[in-house]
Every structure is written in C-alpha cells, then in structure tokens.
C-alpha cells in the first residue's frame, strides 16, 4: 500500500476501483465492532461493557482527529509535494480538516464540469483513500485495549487514544506508507542498507520493504504498545490467583467471524482496485487464516488434550495478523505455511505471559505482536520473488527485520513516554472497584439484567 498520484492528475477516477475502496472502508470499519465482541466475550461478565466501550471510544476519538490532522500527518507530503519532518511525519496542518482534498478546477475539455485537483491512490480519489485509511487508525488503537481489560479508567483510555494515535500511529503510517523512513524512497532505511536504483526517473530502494496492509503499522505497533502498557500499568487484582475465564464464547467466535469478513476489506482493499492481484490477496488471506486456525488447534490438542472455540477464534486472528503484510507477496502455498506457523507460535506465545509475569489480559501481545513480527519477517523467507526460500537471497529478509525492529523500538519508546505522562491522570481504577466490576463502577451499567 503506497500512496501515488495518478499519471494524469486531472483524469477521471475509476468508478469501479472507487466503489471497491469505499466498500473496503466499510468492511474495515465493521471490524472494530467485531473486535469489541471478540474482546467482550473473552472478558469476564462484569467487564464486558467496558471492553465494548473501549473499542467504541477509539471509533469516536480517532475518527475525529484523523479527519482533523491524522491524514495530514500521514500522507500530506505526497499530495502537496512539501518535505516531511525528518522522514517521520508530515505537517499536521497541510490538509487539516480534509476539505483541501475536494479542491477542483474546470475541466479543460468541458468548462461546465469540474475535476478534482488533489490526486489519490491510483485511480481512487484522495478523499476516498482518506476514509479507508481512517478505519485502519481506528482499529489499531482499539486492538491495544484487550491488554488492559478490567482495570483502566475509561477517561484515561480516551485521552490515551488521541495522544497515541497522534504521536505513534500517524508517524508510523507515514514512515511506512507515506514516503518516510520505512518506505522505499531514497532516504529510507532500505536505501541506506542496499542502495538505490532509478525506476522511471525516481530513485528508490533496490530492496523495498514489504508491508502490504499493516504488519508494522497496525499489528507490531499495537502489540508492542500493549506490552509496554501492561508492564507500566501492572496486573489485575488477583492475577495469578483468580481464574479469568471468557464469559461468552459465542461472542468470541462471532467477533472472530466479523474480523475475518472485514479483513478482506483490510487486505484486498489495500490493493486499491479490483484486479488479479486483489484476487491473489483474497486467496492468500483465506489460506493463511484457515491454516492459522488449524495450527492453533493442533497446539491445543497436543498441549491441552482438547481443541476449543476460543482457540479456533484466536487461531483465525493469528493467521489474519500474519498474512496482513505479506498477502500481496506470497503464493497461496506460501500463505498456508505462513498462517500455519503463525497459529502455532501464537498459541505457544500466549502461554508465556504467566511465566514472565505480565498481565496481557486478552493476549494482544501473544497474537498481534508475535504473529505480526512473524508475518513481517516471514516475507523475507516466503516472498515469491525476493524471499530466501525462493532463491532471492537474504536481502529481503534483512530489510524486513530492520523495519520490524525500528517499528518495535519507535513504538516502545513513544508509548512509554505517553504512559508515564498520563500517570497524573490516574490509569487504574481502585482495587475495590475492580473487584466489584468496572462496568458497574465506571459505566454505571451491567451487560445483562438478571433480575
């Protein structure tokens, strides 16, 4: 997913491609309520509303600030031609409010008609692409919430969502997709490592980083932020002594189904049009997700002697996470391998949180960080043209490792700064309120009227 102006900035946009990206944006937006059900089902009954509200809160806050300055911070230099700030982020005021994306001029061939001036992604208008990108920002922030179940003040969470999106998500989106340090331009890390080459008059990295739909920007980003927050905020009261069982497994499986459905907008929509590559992305996404499901269940059967509904749902998400950056670069067989490994290693990884003593409530670290790292780095092995297993040598692998490590380091440092800065607001509800249940104490509601 790389932002680019159309060859003719004044040419009519493709109606079919535009319709598909609008549909994809709706699919990705639907993923956040799906995530809310996934997390809500995994939580205890007395905190299910809080988990739903954390996702809905990110829908509200992040959507607003994305319209105001988020898209501008991520992509404005590609439209305006202005320089970004050290390859990390764009000017937040260049496209503030997005109305600039609707600037028009008279059609040279028909003065009674007008044409959009600002270019978009391929044949899709910029305002449509901005809407699509907004949905990615929303769900990335919402993903973090699963690590913080049952113990974080809702007001502090809302403040965090706005600050973290501004200082972490928007810059990383620019670095990867907007022409920044993790892209393929001549000033990026990839160019520093293996040099540049001239492609149609533009100097680009000889070995370009691959992140088709958000392995670094979404999953490594959210997973690393979750790990930092749980280490700083601390464990739930009773962690290690209390059995935290999912209160509604059908919710979990419904949420996973919605996520799988919406993920076709996530991955296939990132192609920007409905073409043969989009078809390959659809197949690869399905293949990796199915393999992730089976891989997780195999681990459960060997380790726990039973395959569970929660395991099936978690394996689906692990497969989806892993294939996200790789879906346009692998063969279907490579996608099966990538997804199966993701399901296995994520299932193993979630067991380590108790050994290391951190309370990642709903396994955001084990699924999104671990599977996201594997999906990003696995491209270096399995990419059909440049991967190590396909005769491409190790250069792609080196580049993928570098962009993954840079994303991890950037997110870790920035999230820690934000988390400590918000401590005066108070992250935690009281131990008594936590014992009573955050739904009742923080939201004054209950999920189920049992009287």
From TrEMBL:
PROSITE patterns named among the record's database cross-references: AMMONIUM_TRANSP
InterPro entries reported in the protein's UniProt record: Ammonium/urea_transptr, Ammonium_transpt, Ammonium_transpt_CS, NH4_transpt_AmtB-like_dom
Keywords: Ammonia transport, Membrane, Transmembrane, Transmembrane helix, Transport
Residue runs in coiled coils: none
Gene Ontology CC annotation, any one: plasma membrane
Segments passing through the bilayer: 20-42, 49-69, 126-149, 156-177, 212-234, 246-264, 276-299, 306-323, 329-352, 364-383, 398-422
Signal peptide: none
Compartments (UniProt record): Cell membrane; Membrane
Segments forming domain Ammonium transporter AmtB-like: 19-448
Membrane topology, as annotated: Multi-pass membrane protein
Family: Belongs to the ammonia transporter channel (TC 1.A.11.2) family.
Official protein name in the record: Ammonium transporter
Native organism: Williamsia limnetica
């Amino acid at each position: 997913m790389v932002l680019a102006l159309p060859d003719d900035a004044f040419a009519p946009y493709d109606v079919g491609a535009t319709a598909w990206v609008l549909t994809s944006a709706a699919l990705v937006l639907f993923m956040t309520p799906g995530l809310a059900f996934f997390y809500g089902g995994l939580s205890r009954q007395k905190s299910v509303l809080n988990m739903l509200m954390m996702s809905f809160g990110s829908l509200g806050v992040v959507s607003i600030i994305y319209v105001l300055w988020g898209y501008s911070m991520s992509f404005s230099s590609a439209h305006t031609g202005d320089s970004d700030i050290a390859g990390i982020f764009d000017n937040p005021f260049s496209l503030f409010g997005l109305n600039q994306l609707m600037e028009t001029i008279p059609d040279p061939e028909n003065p009674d008609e007008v044409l959009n001036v600002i270019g978009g992604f391929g044949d899709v208008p910029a305002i449509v692409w901005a809407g699509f990108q907004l949905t990615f920002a929303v769900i990335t922030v919402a993903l973090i919430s699963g690590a913080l179940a049952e113990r974080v003040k809702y007001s502090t969470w809302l403040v965090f969502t706005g600050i973290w999106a501004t200082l972490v998500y928007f810059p990383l989106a620019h670095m990867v997709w907007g022409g920044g340090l993790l892209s393929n331009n001549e000033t990026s890390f990839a160019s520093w490592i293996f040099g540049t080459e001239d492609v149609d008059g533009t100097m680009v990295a000889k070995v370009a980083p691959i992140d088709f739909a958000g392995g670094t920007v979404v999953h490594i980003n959210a997973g690393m932020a979750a790990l930092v927050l749980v280490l700083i905020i601390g464990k739930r009261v009773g962690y290690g002594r209390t059995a935290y069982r999912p209160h509604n497994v059908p919710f979990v499986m419904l949420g996973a189904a919605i996520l799988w459905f919406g993920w076709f907008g996530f991955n296939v929509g990132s192609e920007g049009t409905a073409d043969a590559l989009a078809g390959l992305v659809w197949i690869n996404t399905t293949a990796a997700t199915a393999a992730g499901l089976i891989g997780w269940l195999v681990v459960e059967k060997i380790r726990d002697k039973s395959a569970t509904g929660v395991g099936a749902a978690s394996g689906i998400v692990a497969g989806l996470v892993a294939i996200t950056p790789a879906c346009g670069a692998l063969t279907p067989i490579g996608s099966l391998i990538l997804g199966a490994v993701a399901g296995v290693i994520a299932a193993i990884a979630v067991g380590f949180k108790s050994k290391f003593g951190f309370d990642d409530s709903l396994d955001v670290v084990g699924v999104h960080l671990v599977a996201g790292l594997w999906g990003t780095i696995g491209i270096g092995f399995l990419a059909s043209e440049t991967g190590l297993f396909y005769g491409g040598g190790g250069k792609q692998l080196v580049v993928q490792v570098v962009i993954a490590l840079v994303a991890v380091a950037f997110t870790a440092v920035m999230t820690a700064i934000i988390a400590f800065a918000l401590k005066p607001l108070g992250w935690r509800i009281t131990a008594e309120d936590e014992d009573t249940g955050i739904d009742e104490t923080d939201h004054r509601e209950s999920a189920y009227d049992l009287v």
